[in-house]
Write a structure and sequence with these properties.
Thrombin, subunit H; mainly beta
């Protein structure tokens, strides 16, 4: 273990030294301005923006508006937008324990009231590889999978028995045959589809964490990080001065998105 940490420390220092120059890593593509409270991006570089009125807008990779979801009064404030499948968007409304399922044009496909399944306390949801829904039930301390109608398909044993502790994930990702649960204090728990714990990656206190493809992305303080899952290796980039004050970041395989005051700055990343 000491040897592994030595390797990681060396990689951090080496990669930081290589990526100090802004122009060698970040190339500005465009700026999108408007009323932007939060945003996310899918794997096709479509951008989904929640504004101050809780309206959801979809922009294509060029920044052109292609769709909008305006039925906001019924459900309150959206707390999570999952776009891991660009053909099926999930809006989660924590205060109402409700998941609204949208198509790629942001039309409603289905509405799931988790309370009808006796599920009352959920912070994290995520789409599964087979278009079902993962969620973590904090009252039962279980990872659960629902079908598109909201019916329970499977669940793990109580995590207090599996792990000997209580976890509180804020993000769930289904990538490459594994389910990733991120607890900011305890790290990233990796499970197979049968609920067997495969790994606990000690990534802690990262913000803007995202699992996509073979990488885990995130930010902390004045740095951006990319963790390669199969090789246990980190890349680190020091933020350019004009991005240090960004409110949030998002990532795809080739782009960095930074949210500033009423603007999204888009960069290519080498």
């Amino acid at each position: 273990m000491k040897y592994l940490f030595t390797i990681l420390a060396f990689n951090f220092l080496t990669l930081s030294a290589k990526t100090q120059e802004k122009d060698s890593v970040f190339q500005h593509i465009r700026t999108i301005t408007g009323d932007i409270a939060s945003f996310t991006v899918d794997n096709l570089d479509n951008i989904y923006i929640l504004n101050s009125r809780n309206q959801l807008k979809k922009l294509d990779s060029k920044g052109d508006s292609v769709a909008a979801f305006n039925d906001v009064r019924k459900f309150g404030k959206a707390t999570l937008v999952d776009v891991s499948n660009p053909l099926k968007i999930l809006l989660y409304y924590k205060d109402f324990s409700t998941i609204v399922m949208l198509d790629r044009f942001l039309n409603i496909r289905n509405i799931i009231d988790l309370r009808k399944q006796n599920i009352f306390q959920v912070k994290a949801i995520g789409q599964s590889y087979d278009n079902k829904i993962w969620l973590y039930d904090e009252l039962d301390n279980k990872l659960k999978k629902l079908d598109e109608e909201g019916k329970l398909e499977q669940e793990t044993p109580d995590f207090r028995l599996l792990l000997g502790q209580i976890v509180s994930p804020i993000r769930i990702y289904d990538e490459d045959k594994y389910v990733y649960l991120y607890d900011t204090a305890k790290g990233v728990y990796v499970f197979d589809y049968y609920g067997t714990l495969k790994n606990n990656i000690l990534i802690q206190q990262w913000k803007n964490l995202k699992v996509t493809g073979k990488y885990i992305y995130g930010s902390k303080a004045d740095s951006l990080y990319r963790y390669e899952i199969s090789r246990f290796m980190y890349d680190e980039w020091k933020l350019p001065a004009d991005l240090v004050d960004a409110r949030a970041f998002n990532f795809t395989s080739t782009r960095l998105y930074a949210l500033r005051e009423n603007a999204i700055e888009i960069y290519s990343v080498r």
